[in-house]
Amino acid sequence: MTWTVTPEPHDSPAATALWRAYYTEVSDRYYLLHENRRTAPEELEQEITRADWSDLTPPKGRLLVARLEGEPAGTAGVHLTTPTTAELKRVFVQSRMRGRGGAQLLVEAAENEARALGATRMILDTRHDLTEARALYTRLGYEETPPHNNDKYADHWFSKAL
């Protein structure tokens, strides 16, 4: 299996399709846990339309797209919050392509992008129900920290020296 990870415009067809898959999955997981329902189609469209990926563009950010055997498989974003701190955002691998090392490759590529942007530290937040994500970040050397933002969907905050 061949993985590639490359920068891509946040509004490319592959990035747009992966954002839709990402949002559908994390939204459905949230609503199933908290309200015992899936995301309503109109809610999904509203959130996708409202989504702003502009912070994942140069010179202060980057969106990475992973492909498995050439097929778009996942994303990771990096955004500078200060000249030396980058935030890891929207790490996602499509469910049918998980368990093959793509998420780790995305995070490592994002760390390299953050370094290239001048960051010496990476921060991120995630939810309690995204247990796979928390396990990945811990395995890759991220340590849980006090909150660095007030995102209403965040339950856990992490940091790693780059």
TrEMBL record:
CDD domains: NAT_SF
Gene3D superfamilies per the UniProt record, alphabetical: 3.40.630.30
Pfam families for the chain: Acetyltransf_1 (PF00583)
Source domain of life: Bacteria
Residue intervals of the N-acetyltransferase domain: 17-162
PROSITE patterns: GNAT (PS51186)
InterPro entries tied to this protein: Acyl_CoA_acyltransferase, Bact_Acetyltransf, GNAT_dom
UniProt entry tagged with the keyword Acyltransferase: yes
Source organism per UniProt: Streptomyces justiciae
Protein name from the UniProt record: GNAT family N-acetyltransferase
Keyword tags: Acyltransferase, Transferase
SUPFAM superfamilies for the chain: Acyl-CoA N-acyltransferases (Nat) (SSF55729)
